[in-house]
Design a protein that fits this description.
It catalyses: 2 GTP = 3',3'-c-di-GMP + 2 diphosphate. With 367 residues, this protein is α+β, with helices and mostly antiparallel strands. It contains 14 helices and six strands. Strands 2-3-1-4-5-6 form a six-stranded mixed β-sheet, sandwiched between helices.
């Protein structure tokens, strides 16, 4: 199935999108700080450095898409440093410098911190995400919250209240919701796995491993809808009931498995075999004419006759073939193949009988 590849592609797209947004935000922050009337050293260093770093990560992701998780974690580590550095520097500066307020110094990055925590939850596995979130909260949010609690005038200002909510209840709520997010992700994975298992059950015969009748019918309908020539082979094991009666059903199951495996190995990738029911199988051969279809059936008949399935002395099968005609339906094709198979049975089995070509009689080959 293609689910894993599809999931990886979505992850790469998401990481590329986030990196691109970060580069854009860093470039905008760089321009704003350079154009501002007051230049602060930290504001002039971090945004351009982050822009260059995340731009390099985009290039790395394009050239090495398999590194997507590692690139995402490097981006998270860089983001944590970029958020923690101004939080500590400006908090210390506001604490040690009379007349300087943190609400005037700290860049507007509180909303980015909440987004950062969400990304942390996505890309850090299991319980490690708790420790990573707690560490980042202590590095980024805790010094700001401690400062605001010690400076009530700044705390009750509009900017102070916004910082308190973003770094306090909102951040904690994001971390608390981590188990819910993990549970939902696990539930989605289980549902996807169950759906995949059900699809396999619907499309594969559980005993022989070849396609199920349901998928065989669908493939035959698709062949009927196409204009390209195609043929159908119906095969039925000879005297299979006596094999079950003589040697038991476990031996009969091994015979079915050996026949299905032997036929599947001889068929090309675009030729499909499905278990039609009991000891009967249906083969669809695209892009074939009457002689080619006859050769495919004869090759399968000969291979089955040589199969060693102990303790059965020999396994043989009878074959009926027919080409798909313009205007055919599922019933008409199967009816002709079944009639040809019936003739092969009447003639002693272990042989191939062809259904009538339009305007001609039947042909056959003996085993």
């Amino acid at each position: 199935m293609q689910a894993p590849d599809t999931d990886n592609r979505y992850v790469r797209i998401a990481v590329m999108f986030l990196l691109s947004l970060t580069v854009f935000a860093g470039a905008c922050a760089t321009a704003i700080h350079w154009l501002a009337p007051v230049h602060r050293t930290m504001d002039l260093i971090i945004p351009p450095a982050a822009t260059v770093l995340f731009g390099g990560l985009i290039v790395a992701l394009i050239r090495r898409p398999r590194w997507v998780i590692g690139i995402a974690r490097i981006a998270l580590a860089a983001g944590a440093l970029a958020l923690a550095a101004p939080a500590w520097l400006y908090t210390l500066q506001a604490t040690l410098t009379p007349g300087v307020q943190l609400i005037d110094l700290l860049p507007p990055v509180s909303s980015l911190f909440v987004v950062f925590l969400v990304m942390l939850m996505i890309f850090i596995p299991g319980r490690l995400a708790f420790f990573a979130a707690a560490l980042c909260w202590a590095l980024v949010a805790l010094p700001v919250l401690a400062y605001l609690l010690l400076h009530p005038l700044e705390l009750w200002s509009p900017r102070g209240s916004d910082l308190m909510m973003a770094y306090g209840p909102v951040s904690i709520l994001v971390v608390v919701l981590l188990p819910v997010q993990r549970g939902l992700a696990s539930k989605i994975r289980r549902l996807a796995s169950e759906r995949q298992r059900m699809e396999v059950m619907l499309h594969r015969d559980p005993l022989t491993g070849v396609q199920s009748r349901l998928l065989g019918e669908r493939m035959l309908r698709e062949a009927l809808a196409e204009a390209a020539p195609a043929g159908v082979i119906m095969l039925d094991l000879d005297r299979f009931k006596s094999i079950n009666d003589t040697y038991g059903h476990p031996v009969g199951d091994r015979v079915l498995q050996a026949v299905a495996s032997g036929c599947k190995e001889l068929l090309r990738e675009n030729e499909c075999i499905s278990r039609w029911g009991g000891e009967e199988f249906l083969v669809i051969v695209p892009n074939v004419d009457a002689p080619g279809l006859q050769q495919v059936a004869e090759r399968l008949r000969s291979a089955i006759a040589r199969l060693p399935v102990a303790p059965v002395r020999q396994v043989t099968a009878s074959f009926g073939t027919t080409l798909i005609r313009p205007g055919d339906t599922l019933d008409t094709v199967l009816q002709r193949a079944d009639q040809a198979l019936y003739r092969a049975k009447e003639l002693g089995g272990n042989r191939v009988e062809a259904g009538p070509v339009a305007g001609a009689g039947s042909t056959h080959s003996s085993g």
